[in-house]
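Model it.
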Amino acid sequence: MDDQNSRLIKLRKKAAIISLIVGLSMFVFKIGAYLITGSAAIFSDAAESIVHVLATLMALFSIYLSSRPADSSHPYGHGNVEYFSAGIEGLLIVIAAIVIIIESVSSIIAGPELKQLGVGAIVIFFASVVNLILGNYLIRTGKKTNSLTLVADGKHVLTDSITSFGVIIAVILVILTDIELLDPIIAILVALNILITGYKLIRESIAGLMNEVDQKMLDKLTDKIISIKKDYWIDIHELRFWQSGDKIFIDFHLILPYFFNIKQTHDEESYIRSELQKDFPHAELKIHFDYCIDDLCKFCNYKDCKFRKEEKSKSFVWDQKKLIGPPIYKIYKDL
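Modeled.
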């Protein structure tokens, strides 16, 4: 494991531990505020803090496991555990939202009994500010270290912060209007917002496990390949990639002149890998080299070729559609 990778892993673990400590502290404050006030809205905030603590424990385990090197049982590494972690966090958020709705409906039916709302509002305001700072820190660290787990945890914490501000509004409205029924109603609205966050995390988790195409990543990758293209690269096709943790696995077919020797093709692969790793530091590259045939001379830009059978007469656009599509010799009749 190189020093850079070791440093990134330490940053992830540090961020997760900070998240866990803050989460536990916020839960203690919020559950205390709920016991003092009896507010369903404050209970909704406390319930989400429980999820935060459980999710952060899962995140710590995920970061530990994903940092382990590849082995015979996991030749591509352990990075995909981060998708499981994000999915479980999303599921926990959904469960918390359902619990909040049930508690709020019960409060509406029984009639809310609220007290010392001012104290509760102060506690929740403090918690919301702390979570706002923590959430931004986790997202920033997650993006810096390519950790889906930390980004997911950060988004959850930011949602928790927004929830807290919503709770403060609910408490203030109750204090100003003396309409206690507003408390459980706003708690339900908060829960619905939490449900949306949980759904998004689950959706992102499933997309990662199913190797769904990340369009932004694909755009960046194809732009990079096109920018480093050489004139004797006759065609690139069937470009594929998938991401696992901080690694991105890239493979494609490259057609080179048939007279290139093994060293020349190896040099091309080394060049492409070094260029890609400037933008994708942990990229792992596999290239299937194909050799050209006479019918491809009409598309070839290699002016120094001494074995050309005919001059170049046709062109095709080196764009994303071409790179991910079939080889040019299968579609050239349509050009």
